[in-house]
């Protein structure tokens, strides 16, 4: 029995000395001192020991247990101490190092311009609405007086998913959808992303943003359109801004016009921004074509309306004097931090 206890003790102390982590120490403790451990089995066999030898054998078992527990505790403290030292080393903070500057995000110039624009029209009683970017040909072209094979489709070449489904070329389909609902009067603004098959350059992109407005009510005239856009120009570009309407053609409006504003940089005298003309083109507009009203279920004899479309990137470039639209999408913080 003495030799057996000595063997258990030596093996246990050897394993304890080699152990390098807490989990392994726990395994050793269970295998030696646990309910089914080697030392516990020796205690269970005490019934086979002669009565006169039991006190001596019991003392030997207790001494062996005490020695093993002492070594386990000592090794446990040693490993914990090493682990704590390693953790302190990893988590040491060098207070002499420069701090990490927290960089706060802010609104993109496009978003700043959009919110300023929306604020103007909300103040005039407009509602902001949105629609799907993947649209039916019916809403993107047909209901806007652009039937199949119409030459205007060439000017708005887009990305087709199927014959009847495409990426919208303008946010006008939102207007068609709203008119189709028949809830009159209508006074809406529809901003959103649009897609056209354009090459990327300083003023073009296959994906950009438009903001279109629509008003339909009884007695709406060109004078209402003129007054609305004149007010917008003054609030967005400055109180001294003047507007000029030039005749144009759009399939979904009649009459139609392009709108210019006096250059906000030179006040109309002529400069680099306006290329010496004193005027800058900002949007297209017109009275809603009677046929468009009819196709959307509105009686053109009783109701009339006007619509306009603004290129968000265009007015952002103009307002902040940016000369290349690609800067808006390159995520260069040197550029974006200026806003």
Automatic annotation (TrEMBL):
Compartment list: Cytoplasm
Keyword ATP-binding: yes
GO biological process per UniProt: phenylalanyl-tRNA aminoacylation
Cofactor: Mg(2+)
Oligomeric and partner information: Tetramer of two alpha and two beta subunits.
Cofactor note: Binds 2 magnesium ions per tetramer.
PANTHER family referenced in this protein's UniProt entry, alphabetically: PHENYLALANINE--TRNA LIGASE, MITOCHONDRIAL, PHENYLALANYL-TRNA SYNTHETASE
GO molecular function ontology, one term from the record: catalytic activity, acting on a protein
Enzyme Commission number: 6.1.1.20
UniProt xrefs under Pfam families: Phe_tRNA-synt_N, tRNA-synt_2d
Primary localisation category: cytoplasm
HAMAP family in the record: Phe_tRNA_synth_alpha1 (MF_00281)
Binding-site list for Mg(2+): 254
Catalytic activity: tRNA(Phe) + L-phenylalanine + ATP = L-phenylalanyl-tRNA(Phe) + AMP + diphosphate + H(+)
Residue ranges annotated for the Aminoacyl-transfer RNA synthetases class-II family profile domain, each copy included: 117-330
Entry keywords, A to Z: Aminoacyl-tRNA synthetase, ATP-binding, Cytoplasm, Ligase, Magnesium, Metal-binding, Nucleotide-binding, Protein biosynthesis
Major enzyme class: ligase
Similarity comment: Belongs to the class-II aminoacyl-tRNA synthetase family. Phe-tRNA synthetase alpha subunit type 1 subfamily.
Organism expressing this protein natively: Wujia chipingensis
Superkingdom: Bacteria
GO cellular component terms listed in the entry, alphabetical order: cytoplasm
Gene: pheS
Name listed for the protein in its UniProt record: Phenylalanine--tRNA ligase alpha subunit
């Amino acid at each position: 029995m003495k030799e057996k206890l000595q063997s258990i003790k030596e093996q246990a102390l050897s394993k304890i000395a080699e152990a390098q982590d807490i989990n392994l120490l726990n395994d050793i403790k269970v295998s030696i001192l646990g309910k089914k451990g080697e030392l516990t089995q020796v205690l269970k066999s005490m019934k086979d020991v002669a009565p006169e030898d039991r006190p001596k054998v019991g003392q030997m078992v207790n001494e062996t247990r005490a020695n093993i527990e002492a070594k386990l505790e000592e090794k446990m403290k040693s490993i914990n101490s090493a682990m704590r030292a390693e953790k302190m080393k990893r988590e040491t903070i060098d207070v002499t190092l420069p701090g990490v500057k927290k960089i706060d995000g802010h609104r993109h110039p496009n978003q700043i311009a959009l919110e300023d624009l929306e604020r103007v029209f909300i103040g005039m009683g407009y509602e902001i609405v949105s629609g799907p970017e993947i649209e039916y040909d019916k809403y993107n072209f047909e209901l806007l007086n652009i039937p199949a094979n119409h030459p205007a489709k060439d000017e708005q070449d887009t990305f087709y998913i199927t014959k009847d489904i495409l990426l919208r070329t303008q946010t006008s389909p939102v207007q068609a959808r709203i008119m189709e609902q028949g809830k009159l009067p209508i006074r809406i603004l529809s901003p959103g992303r649009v897609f056209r098959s354009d090459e990327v350059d300083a003023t073009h992109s296959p994906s950009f943003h438009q903001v279109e407005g629509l008003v339909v009510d009884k007695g709406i005239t060109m004078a209402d359109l003129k007054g609305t856009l004149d007010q917008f120009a003054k609030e967005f570009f400055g109180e001294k801004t003047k507007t000029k309407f030039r005749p144009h053609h759009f399939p979904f409006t009649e009459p139609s016009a392009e709108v210019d504003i006096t250059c906000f940089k030179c006040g109309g005298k002529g400069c680099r921004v306006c290329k010496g003309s004193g005027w800058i083109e900002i949007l297209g507009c017109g009275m809603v074509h009677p046929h468009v009203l009819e196709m959307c279920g509105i009686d053109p004899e009783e109701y009339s309306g006007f619509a306009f479309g603004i290129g968000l990137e265009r007015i952002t470039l103009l307002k902040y004097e940016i000369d290349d639209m690609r800067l808006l999408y390159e995520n260069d913080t040197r550029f974006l931090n200026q806003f």
